[in-house]
Amino acid sequence: TIDNVMREILHIRQYYPIYERIHFVDETLNANPTRFRNLCRALGKEKITWTGNCRAETWMDLSVLRLMKTSGCQLVEIGIESGVQSVLDQANKGTKISHIQQFLQSAKDVGLPVIGTVMVPHVSDTSDTLKQSVAILTRWAKDYPLMVFPLQTMVFPASPYEKECKQYGVVVDN
């Protein structure tokens, strides 16, 4: 619950003052819009400085990013994964390029820096899709407060992604 999270954070603040900010490593941090807004309000009330991972959901509009910023958020990390919609669709990411771009615009409007992680390569990537992705990510990094952070795609045994790799004849050697 929000109360439990806040108790833990306040405990850290009291007993470990060396920690000046909290970083939420939680892919579901903003999975529930109401809970996320309430968490932001609670963090703001206690003047907690924080950063965290979020998904660029459609409801993450200017008002939500403004709430994040005023609640003490200094930076947010989103999984962009690729700059090409067909690659995102093939990877079943459930993400739309338009949502990511709107998120970045809202972040710019409120002055909130963004780290955008990008997985390279995806099974469906080609040299053309990689070039397209680099082009759009480069443009976004110029237009928005975005630092692109590429991550090597990891394929775990028995994962859906490993099955997809086998389907396309991709040899996996992690």
Folded structure, characterized:
The chain has helices at residues 2-15, 33-45, 62-70, 85-90, 97-110, 127-143, 160-167, and strands at residues 22-24, 50-54, 73-81, 114-120, 146-152. The protein is α/β, with parallel strands linked by helices and 174 residues long. A five-stranded parallel β-sheet has the order 1-2-3-4-5. β4 (114-120), α6 and β5 form a beta-alpha-beta unit.
The total of beta strands comes to 5
Percent of residues in β-strands = 15-25%
Low-confidence stretches: none
Shape category:
globular
Which structural class best describes the helix and strand composition? alpha/beta
The DSSP helix count reads: 7
The radius of gyration is 18 Å
Please summarize the sheet with the most strands. Answer: 5 strands, parallel
Distance between the termini: 37 Å
Q: What order do the strands of the largest sheet run in, or round the barrel if closed? A: 1-2-3-4-5
